[in-house]
Amino acid sequence: KTNAVAIKILSDQFPDKAHIARLKNERYMSKFLASRCAAVRTVLDCNFSMTEMEDVIDKQGCNPDSSRFVCFEWLPGVTLREWVQVSNSADINGIKHNLKLSIHLAWQIAHSLSEIHEVGGAILNNISSENIIVNSLQNEKDICTVHMIGIGLASFLREGQPEGSLHEGQKDVKVQTDLCSLGDVFFELFSGQSPHQSYHDRAENIIDSVIISEGKNTVDQRSNRRPLRELRSILSKSSTPPQLALFVLELMGVFNSGIRGASASCHHYYTSAREVSEQVYYFLLQPESSLSKMSQQRFHQSMGYLSFNANNLYGREEQQAILMNSFEQVISREKAREIVLVSGCSGAGKTA
Question: What is the pLDDT of residues 99-147, one digit of tens each?
Fold first, then answer.
């Protein structure tokens, strides 16, 4: 379609079996999903000369080692992470990124993931802003489309088992892995910042020479997510509408265990990518003014935000700190419950 090719190569001279297995899995899963899902790029059968593939020539047999590279159709556009960075600082091709455009992009991503789950019967296990390609806009009438890349960790929902034999609880846990990652992606899309405390570039980047080189395995940043209080603050400062901000945090699962792959018995606000896409589509149909109807106060209350009336608790800073500390232990440190006994004489301000 584009008359260009992207070649993904294992750059290490002696890659380990895990790297080779991952590339092999990406070739297989991409070929399988591309025929069923529009958001997965096509695998191409490419024949290269020795000169063109000298970096992957087998030193002993003098033949290109097909286990160390895979060819894809080239996708014009930028990664979602680049799209977000540019949209926060300037226009792309003179087109200003607005809230509606971001919501539409979120819907495209959720809809694509839904298709991969339901039609392809697979989960990606590696959704991030760097593994989503957004097409370049040429004019204001263009509609953003997305493609999922870097699917070397993808797997089938019913891998190695007859149809229908996978326990629904197991399936739900697998789907939640993708949904929590989707929440992280939406957080970055709407706030302009990563939900993780540190953000390192992966050794997997698209470059002009149409060569994609993969180095080390993807670093799992899930355990390094920012505290809830900080996530809430970032969304508020980014002027993300409260309704949308609450939706993103619910999708991220920050009000549950906060750990991906948690037990299926845990409460999840969303159980499928289709449900998420329907919710985003609802936001897309709403005027921007209606998305901001929820006040910031109600937004914080919806997330378990604790506040004190200074006029009623003057001089009670120490007691406020104790209550706030207990509150933070419950919502940020994943503690099930905390009991605080408030005692004092009549008129001391216990009710306030």
Answer: 888 999 999 999 999 999 999 999 999 999 999 999 865 555 557 789 9
Q: What percentage of the chain's residues is helix, strand, coil (to nearest 5)? A: 40, 10, 50
Question: DSSP secondary-structure letter at 137?
Answer: P
Q: Are 154 and 23 in contact (CB under 8 A)?
A: no
CA nearest neighbour of 195 among 151, 242, 253? 253
For the entire predicted model, the pTM comes to: 0.72
Rounded CA-CA distance 35/56 in Å is 28
Tokens linked to 209: 């020479």
Cα angle 114, 120, 125 (rounded to 5 degrees) comes to 70
The pLDDT tens digits for 210-264 are: 333 333 333 444 568 888 888 988 998 888 888 899 899 999 988 754 333 344 4
Q: Record the tokens describing residue 10, joined without a space.
A: 């294992």
State mean pLDDT over 147-171: 71
Question: Structural domain boundaries of the chain?
Answer: 78-291, 307-352
Other Cβ atoms less than 10 A from the Cβ of 223: the count is: 9
Angle at 75 between CA 220 and CA 217, to 5 degrees: 20
Give the separation between CA 116 and CA 113, rounded to whole angstroms.
Answer: 5
Q: What topology is assigned to 78-291 in CATH?
A: Transferase(Phosphotransferase); domain 1 (1.10.510)
CB-side neighbour CA atoms (13 Å) of 323 = 15
